[in-house]
Design a protein that fits this description.
The structure is a homodimer.
Chain A: H1 2-24, H2 27-34, H3 38-44, H4 48-67, H5 77-94, H6 96-106, H7 111-123, H8 130-140, H9 149-165, H10 167-173, H11 182-198
Helix pairs in contact in A: 1-2, 1-4, 1-6, 2-3, 5-9, 5-11, 8-9
The structure holds a DNA duplex (30 and 30 nucleotides).
DNA sequence: GTTAAATTTGACTATATGGTTAAAGTGAAT
DNA sequence: ATTCACTTTAACCATATAGTCAAATTTAAC
């Protein structure tokens, strides 16, 4: 069935592109991985470029829709943050390679890729970034200090994403660290929330 | 002079490799950029692979030696952190593309690259990670809460590095954000230190 | 000035790779 | 069974690209 083979190809292409990048990916490798002839790739997807765009769009969609799914805003900010961090870490730890890939390909600055981003951002309407509005509201409500919402937003995703993006470096530098392990992900969750809420200053009871 | 042309080549190669990655880089482009014949590349540097290794090693050395320079340990932790964040942000904001490049190439997991990392890490003796020991000492001295030093280390570099690694995405999502601007770098510095020390809980005086 | 070594170049090669094509296979509708 | 559209394949093609080489040119030593 056509739908079947198409998704087989897309899956194979995804894994190759994500690992090797656009320039490093080879059509014959993708074909082999999909268990088909190389010419079939060009039958189903006109060109490498076209195939890449399909893959890329699919990845971004999957990624963002996983992340932007119901983080109910109708809670106190503490609960909101708990959910946010939890969902981010779960989503990313399941797709650790995608982050590296996205940082690489999105940073390319090529016209083609930039248009692609534009289209995708529009398509999945990454509007107003929910976190930022949530932060602003928490401040207005007096739930948290009046920090810069954009900086906090950047800090939040940095704390969640970075360990997976820089996994290779971290695991090389910190003996025994296993970023993808369940234990680390859980510990990371705790650490982020603790840091975000309390910083590192001594608590009153510790003085 | 031979030393001169070698460094000219290395500079050209750096810029091309950092932007396009190993797979995307083209020897003739490097040659053009260095203002020499393509064959000269192979005269001075045996092969693309060899040239890449030279470039990579040089970049890593430059990067780490910039970062690990005198962050005097003989201060209170607050001053230490100020210096740390300041140096990190300054170093990275001057080389924003290198981060993306390192995340990409180091994450490749190929045998060649991994050996390379190993050699470099050994060579520039990235030992025991100074921050971690500094954190531990601050805890022992009762300067800060007893947080996990490794998690704090990861958080620190995440907060500093991420905005530059993910610059393309961030600037696309946040209208008007200019990650490389002096203003942002300064604001980021403040935000990181503020968050690290105080978290986002309400201060007593705000209640 | 002559010689020898180091440097530089243009022309070339081998190969890998994205892409094409024409022909063969398959299956459903009539 | 014939037709016809869809699918699949092997064999090609054109080009790009890393790498080579022999000859030319410059530099340094004497």
């Amino acid at each position: 069935m056509t739908k079947d083979i198409e998704s087989t190809i897309l899956k194979a292409a995804s894994s190759v592109f994500v690992k090797d990048g656009y320039d490093g990916a080879r059509m014959n490798v993708i074909a082999e991985k999909a268990g088909i002839n190389k010419a079939l790739l060009h039958y189903y997807f006109r060109s490498k470029n076209h195939l890449f765009q399909m893959v890329f769009e699919r990845l971004m969609h999957d990624f963002f829709s996983s992340i932007y799914r119901e983080v109910s805003m109708d809670t106190d900010f503490r609960t909101y943050l708990d959910n946010f961090v939890s969902i981010y870490l779960n989503t990313i730890s399941k797709r650790p390679y995608v982050i590296r890939f996205m940082i690489w390909e999105l940073g390319h600055g090529s016209g083609t890729v930039n248009e692609l981003i534009g289209r995708i951002m529009k398509k999945w309407e990454i509007k107003e970034i929910p976190v930022i509005t949530a932060v602003q509201r928490a401040i207005d409500r007096g739930e948290i200090r009046a920090v810069d919402p954009i900086q906090l937003f950047i800090s939040l995703i940095a704390l969640c994403i970075f360990p997976f993006a820089a996994r290779a470096i971290l695991e090389n530098k910190v003996e025994g660290l296993k970023v993808l392990s369940k234990e680390f992900v859980e510990a990371r969750k705790e650490a982020i929330l603790d840091l975000i809420w309390n910083g590192i200053s001594l608590k009153e009871d510790d003085r």
